[in-house]
């Protein structure tokens, strides 16, 4: 059982890589961003609180996201977990340590996707997902094989995130730099950080991550 964190700014490729690892390795993909978007769509109390904060590109409270992660870990029969977009603050990093320890899990790697921020705006503004199955695409970097048809489920309906506009992306990046990057030294001190070149093509990033998980890098 391997538990890993994918760390990197908006558009770094966390979700793309986590979805692949889940499909290939029976690991559970835990994205607090996806959980919050589901809560917003369902209009739950958490969703009502999170909606405007997310639209501005700011961080939702540590207590809310930590509780979401705990709920998903309970009862999961995965062969490991991939944390995508969590933890994002020092407080969340401390919460994760407790959540894992309480469930007899431990953290194996913190994989940092190293990227050029100027390129990220292109990635984010070109991103879209299948409205039916959630498969992720990009106008230029990962188009559907047949135009306007989902490769995975054949649906012809797609959606774009409301926070994927240039203004909000700048706020999301500033939040990353101010609150999330500072958790790296904490994991570096534990010897857990592995860096991969997030600017490489999707398949190359996958190969670098696989090498780390398989112990060959
Ligand atoms: P969240 O959903 O986590 O968004 P994010 O961190 O801004 O990251 P993204 O999902 O934008 O990027 P990604 O790294 O997953 O990139 P992707 O793989 O899609 O959070 C959203 C909001 O929720 C936050 O702003 C906050 O308000 C709230 N929130 C969430 N978690 C929280 C927490 N823990 N605490 C507090 N608040 C929280 O790739 C992007 C695009 O690029 C895709 O189109 C993809 O096809 C393409 N692509 C991927 N890799 C490559 C590559 N190597 N080359 C070329 N293109 C690529
Ligand atoms: Mg994502
Ligand atoms: Zn689909």
Q: Overview of this structure, please?
A:
- By secondary structure, this protein is of the alpha/beta class.
- 47% of the residues lie in helices and 16% in strands.
- It has nine helices and eight strands.
- It has helices spanning 14-25, 32-42, 45-56, 62-73, 90-102, 117-125, 166-180, 184-189, 202-213; strands spanning 2-7, 28-31, 80-84, 109-114, 127-130, 136-138, 158-159, 193-197.
- The strands form two sheets. The protein has a five-stranded parallel beta sheet, sandwiched between helices. A three-stranded antiparallel beta sheet has the order 6-5-7.
- Strand 5 and strand 6 (136-138) form a beta hairpin.
- The mean pLDDT is 96.
- It binds BIS(adenosine)-5'-pentaphosphate (AP5), magnesium ion and zinc ion.
- BIS(adenosine)-5'-pentaphosphate binds at residues 8, 10-16, 32-33, 36, 53-54, 57-60, 65, 85-86, 88, 92, 123-124, 126-127, 136-138, 141-142, 172, 201-202, 205.
Keywords for this structure?
217 residues; alpha/beta; five-stranded parallel beta sheet; binds magnesium ion; binds zinc ion
């Amino acid at each position: 059982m391997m538990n890993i964190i994918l760390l990197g700014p908006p558009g770094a490729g966390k979700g793309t890589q986590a979805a692949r690892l889940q499909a290939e390795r029976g690991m559970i993909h835990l994205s607090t961003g996806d959980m919050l978007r589901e809560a917003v769509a369902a209009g739950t109390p958490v969703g009502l609180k999170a909606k405007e904060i997310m639209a501005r590109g700011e961080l939702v409270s540590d207590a809310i996201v930590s509780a979401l992660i705990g709920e998903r870990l309970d009862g999961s029969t995965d062969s490991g977990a991939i944390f995508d977009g969590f933890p994002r603050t020092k407080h969340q990093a401390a919460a994760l340590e407790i959540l894992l320890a309480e469930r007899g899990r431990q953290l194996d790697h913190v994989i940092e996707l190293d990227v050029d921020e100027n390129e990220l705006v292109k990635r984010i503004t070109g991103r879209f997902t299948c409205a039916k199955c959630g498969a992720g695409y990009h106008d230029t970097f990962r188009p559907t094989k047949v135009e306007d048809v989902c490769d995975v489920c054949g649906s012809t309906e797609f959606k774009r995130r409301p926070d994927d506009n240039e203004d909000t992306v700048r706020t999301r990046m500033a939040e990353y730099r101010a609150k999330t990057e500072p958790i790296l030294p904490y994991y570096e001190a534990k010897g857990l950080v592995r860096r991969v070149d997030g600017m490489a093509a999707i398949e190359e990033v996958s190969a670098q991550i696989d090498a780390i998980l398989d112990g060959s890098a």
